[in-house]
Amino acid sequence: MTPPIAWDTSLVSRLWPGTPALAYLEDEALAGRPLRIPAPVLTEISFGLARAAQRDARFAAQLEWIEDLLRHPKVEILAIGREAGFLAGRLRALAHHPPDRGRRDARTKPERRVSWLLDLQIAAAAWASGCDVATENNGDFEAIADLLAAKLGLEPLIVHRSPL
Fold first, then answer.
1. Strand 75-78 and strand 159-161: pairing?
2. Bridge partners, residue 161, by sequence
3. Most exposed of 21, 30, 85, 132 (fewest Cβ within 10 Å)?
4. Tens of pLDDT along the chain (164 residues)?
5. C-alpha to C-alpha distance for 164 and 11, rounded to whole angstroms
6. What is the pTM of this model?
7. What is the fold, at CATH topology level, of the domain defined by 5-161?
8. Domain boundaries, the chain
């Protein structure tokens, strides 16, 4: 049996009315498969939209829309419980800086570190819930999967490319 898949921020952020992401989600819900979202994704989504809303009021409406969507019964939020919390801490101790991917990144160093910490938490919440992860940020999540298997001797986290 294939493990369920949790969506990373890179996919959840594409959920808007009329998008292929929302159409995919609707098809999945009709097939009885809920959308699984690790709780730290909510932090990233709400932060990004609330920050953007300070510059452009249209983002406030998008924030309200996604808050409503996330209350839908076919959306399951994966909590950071005891197991995920400890796992995220162990992962952070092993790799407290994001991997250097050599790509251009407009974010500041502190922003990249916060993002990395949230990625560790997203991966830990998914892993502790028995889920794989679907993302467009494959490099970082594959690095986390390697840490789980090689450094901690745990079952690997399977990282899937975007289904969209």
1. unpaired
2. 135
3. 30
4. 788 999 999 999 999 999 999 999 999 999 999 999 999 999 999 999 999 999 999 999 999 999 999 999 999 999 999 999 999 999 999 998 888 766 677 888 888 899 999 999 999 999 999 999 999 999 999 999 999 999 999 998 999 999 88
5. 8
6. 0.94
7. Rossmann fold (3.40.50)
8. 5-161
